[in-house]
Specification:
The protein is of the alpha/beta class and 256 residues long. Helices cover 41% and strands 22% of the residues. It has a seven-stranded mixed beta sheet with strand order 3-2-1-4-5-7-6, with helices on both faces. Helix 2 packs antiparallel against helix 3 (42-66) and helix 3 (42-66) packs across helix 8. The longest helix is centred in the N-terminal third of the chain and has 25 residues, at 42-66. The chain is elongated and about 70 Å long. The two termini are 34 Å apart. Bound molecules: S-adenosylmethionine (SAM). S-adenosylmethionine binds next to helix 4 and helix 5.
Length: 256
């Protein structure tokens, strides 16, 4: 039974991913009020109204649908159906995906692996000890006794072949270049036992994210399902399931 502390989870993604639409909404409302008192044209007021409606809906989507600083849920219940075993999280960051696995599969243990280098700082800001940020979240969720933090590069994993029953990687492998993606998928295939699951979660350019962030949404390496399926197969996985969630594509694969 997990014993969570009273300290809240803080995944540390930048504020503007959740609240960045609010300044636009405030500006639109202020201009609407100004336009009303100064009797601006109907068209100007109409366009300002549309902008105010979009920014409030986009805020709702970013804050409550994407909810990057909230708990993540497994996109598929088929992942690790046995509910037990040793799992590796590749690019664990501040623990969102590690906690997702530990909470939804309470008999597992997870090695939360991250390079804790410039990419970590880019996403979560500078920190004297990134590992402590991760540990604070594991403790806040009450799962720290089932997790181990490992500082390493997912392109060259410091584990013997077949060490893990399953692997997960969420919004991390898609930050690497093509060579890095191939290397990390090959490493995932090496350290997962034959028959073990690999849940790969990446950013997707789908309608919800287009609606909320439109052309401002920039992310390297946004690829489609076919591209990821082919890479997984090349690495030695069989793709069992593929789907999308808001801002997300997931692929569930099995080690051949
Ligand atoms: C966007 S964060 C995702 C964190 C977490 N999985 C989540 O879902 O919130 C990407 C993470 O990948 C890590 N990362 C990037 N390149 C890496 C590499 N070569 N080896 C290990 N971790 C890496 C970064 O340090 C960062 O913490």
């Amino acid at each position: 039974m997990p014993v969570s502390t009273n300290v809240p989870l803080n995944f540390g993604y930048p504020w503007w991913l959740s609240y960045g639409h609010l300044p636009f909404l405030a500006a639109a409302v202020a201009l609407l009020l100004l336009g009303y008192t100064r009797k601006w044209s109907k068209w100007t007021m109409f366009l300002l109204g549309v902008f105010a409606l979009w920014s409030s809906a986009a805020f709702f989507v970013a804050r409550f649908v994407f909810n990057v600083n909230g708990r993540a849920t497994l996109p598929t219940q088929s992942f690790l159906r046995s509910g037990t075993g040793r799992v590796i999280d590749l690019g664990a960051g501040t623990g969102r995906s590690t906690i997702m696995v530990l909470e939804s599969r309470p008999l597992t243990t997870v090695v939360a692996l991250d390079l804790f280098g410039s990419s970590f700082e880019q996403h979560f800001g500078p920190s004297p000890s990134p590992q402590q940020k991760l540990m604070a979240n594991l403790k806040a969720a009450g799962v720290e006794h089932r997790a181990t933090i490992q500082t390493a590069d997912m392109r060259k994993l410091p584990f013997d072949s077949g060490t893990f029953d399953a692997a997960v990687s969420s919004y991390a492998i898609d930050h690497l270049n093509s060579e890095g993606i191939r290397e990390s998928l090959a490493e995932a295939a090496r350290v997962v036992k034959p028959g073990g699951d690999f849940l790969l979660i990446v950013i997707a350019k789908e309608p919800w994210i287009q609606f909320a962030f439109g052309p401002l949404f920039m992310h390297s390496n946004i690829r489609g399902a076919d591209w990821w399926s082919t890479r997984l197969q090349e690495a030695g996985f069989q793709v069992l399931e593929e789907g999308t969630r808001p801002a997300t594509r997931y692929l569930l694969a099995r080690r051949l």
